[in-house]
Design brief:
The longest helix has 25 residues. This protein is of the alpha+beta class. It is built from 6 helices and 8 strands; from the N terminus they run ααααββααββββββ.
Length: 196
């Protein structure tokens, strides 16, 4: 090989050797001197949105799963749950009405419904009739079954809540001076909800 060609190839070979050594160092892991020093890996900015998106997707999936599971309870399971709620409420018949009371011997309207659901199913409903409506799935009067909730309206305002007892009757804590009782629904300004 001529001296001219050797002169031209020497820098290229040196560059190639340096590149190979660098590649081997990169893939062989840390050197013995740095192996004992822990390093913290920080996700790149580009990776962070992907991680956030994944967490949001998991949360959405869990919520969907709970909602999906509720709607696939058997009719028998829903009926049994509703009867447990109604039976708890019926055991309170005769207890006095007291504003803000949640039991076990005095109730206001939403205190009674919250108590019945907590004892019968372990579900915790807010102590407010309007807030309880937001925790239900709206159903028709025809679909209502014992244990569902009945909401009484004055326009768009929910002013009272009761437990449906079947045959157009409810168990409820009416108002001061009254006691928990079962009676017929006296108005058409009601909606029905199933606790989800």
């Amino acid at each position: 090989m001529s001296p001219l060609i050797r002169g031209l190839l020497r820098p290229a070979l040196s560059t190639t050797v340096v590149g190979v050594i660098a590649a081997l160092t990169l893939f062989s892991g840390p050197s013995p001197e740095t192996a004992s020093t822990p390093t913290r890996s920080t996700p790149s900015p580009a990776a962070t949105p992907a991680l956030t998106l994944t967490a949001a997707a998991v949360t959405t999936h869990r919520r969907h799963h709970r909602h999906h599971r509720h709607h696939h309870l058997s009719a028998a399971a829903l009926a049994a749950r509703g009867l447990r709620v109604l039976h708890v409420a019926e055991r309170q018949i005769g207890d006095r009405y007291a504003y803000g009371a949640t039991g076990p011997s005095a109730f206001d309207c939403s205190g009674l419904t919250a108590y019945a659901y907590r004892v019968a199913t372990g579900k915790h409903l807010p102590h407010n009739s309007s807030a309880q409506q937001h925790r239900t799935h709206r159903i028709s009067a025809r679909s209502a079954r014992p244990g569902d909730l009945v909401f009484f309206h004055d326009g768009s305002h929910v002013y009272h809540v009761a437990i449906y007892a079947g045959h157009h009757t409810i168990v409820h804590a009416p108002y001061p001076g009254q006691r928990v009782k079962r009676e017929r629904i006296w108005t058409s300004a009601v909606t029905y909800g199933r606790v989800i």
